[in-house]
Write a structure and sequence with these properties.
5 helices, 7-stranded mixed beta sheet, alpha/beta
């Protein structure tokens, strides 16, 4: 199976599918940090999205799609961090919505688009499911929405104790965004184990 993992530099999902024998490639404008540059497409994903993929797992940037920073849309004074506020942030949000919808409207027959809880539930539609890391072997909380086409909902297979919000408490720094967006290995493994071309019951 030919698998495109869009907007992924960590290669966590890519490597999970590779371990199952699939021809998986991560794709991101950033160079990969997962150790397998031969499995990484260092380009704009829209340049390769129509190259005959069987399955896509997409992780569009969530900075302007999540509801957690809504307060900054009504701020006019620039922030010391350089983060966008006010009108500039609203423009960036519309661009993020447009980018998300490009994945929705692509010709790949089976896809999953993941994002935190945010505006796409109203701007597009509600997700097929919302999952948590603790359902897949990680004792942490991070609600993640999955929009699906041609795929079944993921089953939780390793529910564990613990509800720590580790990522929410990460200190500010250049690597914070990467660490917060990295897919949990348990979730990546569930995707690789449960999603394949033989699937019949789909969303």
């Amino acid at each position: 199976m030919k698998v495109l993992v869009a907007c992924e530099e960590s290669q966590v999902v890519c490597k999970a599918f590779r371990a199952k024998g699939h021809e998986a490639f991560s794709c991101d404008l950033q160079e990969c940090s997962g150790g397998h540059p031969e499995w990484h497409i260092n380009h704009d994903v829209m340049e390769v999205i129509n190259e005959g993929w069987d399955l896509m797992i997409a992780h569009p940037p969530c900075t302007y799609l999540t509801v957690s920073a809504n307060k900054w849309y009504n701020v006019t004074e620039p922030r010391e961090s350089g983060a966008l506020v006010g009108t500039d942030r609203k423009i960036a949000r519309e661009e993020a919505v447009e980018f998300f919808m490009k994945f929705v409207n692509c010709d790949i027959p089976r896809w999953c688009i993941e994002n935190p809880i945010g505006i796409m539930s109203s701007r597009y539609r509600k997700p097929n499911q919302v999952i948590q890391p603790w359902m897949y072997g990680h004792g942490e909380t991070k609600a993640t929405c999955l929009w699906l086409r041609g795929l079944p909902r993921l089953n939780g297979f390793d529910v564990v104790e613990g509800r720590e919000q580790r990522l929410h408490r990460l200190s500010p720094g250049p690597e914070r965004a990467k660490l917060r967006s990295k897919t949990y290995e348990g979730i990546a493994n569930a995707m690789a184990n449960q999603w394949n071309l033989q699937t019949r019951k789909t969303a």
